[in-house]
Amino acid sequence: TIQTDMDMADTVYTEPLTPELVAQIIEKEKIDAILPTMGGQTGLNIATELGKLGLLEGIKVIGSDVQTIADVEDRDLFANFMDRLDEPIPKCHAVESVEEALEAVEEIGYPVIVRPAFTLGGTGGGIAHNKQELIDVTTHGLDMSYINQVLIDESVLGWKEIEFEVMRDKNDTCIIVCNMENVDPMGIHTGDSIVVAPIQNLNDEVCQRLRDASIKIIRNLGINGGCNIQFALNPETNEYKIIEVNPSFREAVESNDGYCPCMIEKSPETKCMCKDFREQTEPGKCHCGRFAKEE
User: Fold this and answer.
1) What is the crossing angle of helices 204-221 and 66-73, to 10°?
2) How far apart are CA 214 and CA 230, in angstroms?
3) 164, containing H or E segment
């Protein structure tokens, strides 16, 4: 998705993407709201840092607020959040050093998945089958992580990888935009695999379980907008575990939903008359007229 398009944006800045510079732009343009979930991992990271620096006073964060982003991007907070929801995740430990990683694997056992926090597309992660591989992958992962943290995960290699794209409006109405399955199993990165939508090889009972879990997660996160939820599914027992929650819009949402985005966060610029998803007669045709701009 290209969002530095002059036909889409009022103003485009070619500047280093740092919290300090973004804060200067916010002040200069007199911005009163930001939408970090449309900026991918970079947008999430910058919004988090702006919040830490106290630079979002008086600025509304639309979609996923800073605490929600932290709950799903900080691996330790993510594990605690899923535990509160009674949703299963792989056995894991958040660590901030190689020594802590070596201690964690004594409980989990090899192989383990090393997943850096706050990175784009799993950058810096990998699979460790022995001590030396763990040292190498963890060292790289810590260097790549925005907060110098990695998660040492119990292995689910060979399980199916399933994704659900979910959207929620401000009235707590939720829809599943689409569900997807990777042709390749866990262990092959999504970017190196082929994704099929909708799911073709799971029965309705399993799909409904994953759907219910997805809706429960987005509701408890309090997201007004969209998120992507990734599951690992045991092909023999249909046991599932939550792998990751991405509190941002992805290409699948943008290409499949057909819903007017002004329904998610009503704003004066769009003069939206719709209050939630239920007011649409059909996807792509809301009462306000798609992207109706104020004269």
Assistant:
1) 130
2) 9
3) strand 160-168
- 48 CB-near residues (< 8 Å, 6+ apart): 66, 69, 70, 73, 118, 146
Sheet holding 174-182, edge to edge: 195-196, 174-182, 160-168, 225-233, 240-246
Q: For residue 147, what are the CA distances in angstroms to 8, 73, 75, 82?
A: 32, 10, 10, 20
Separation of first and last alpha carbons in the chain: 27
How far, in whole angstroms, is CA 233 from its chain's centroid? 19
Left (φ > 0), alpha (ψ -120 to 50) or beta: where does 86 sit? left
For the chain of 295 residues, list the mean pLDDT of each consecutive stretch of 10.
Answer: 70 88 92 81 84 87 80 77 92 91 94 81 81 94 86 90 91 91 86 88 95 94 86 95 80 44 45 53 49 38
Quick check: 181 and 203 in contact, CB under 8 A?
A: no
**What does the alpha-carbon distance between residue 73 and residue 247 come to, in Å, rounded to a whole number?**
9
- Judged by DSSP in three states, 104 sits in helix
Tokens for 233, please give them.
Answer: 């599914």
Angle at 227 between CA 241 and CA 47, to 5 degrees: 115
Adjacent-strand bridge partners of 178: 165
The pairing of beta strand 112-116 with beta strand 150-154:
antiparallel
pTM of the entire structure?
Answer: 0.71
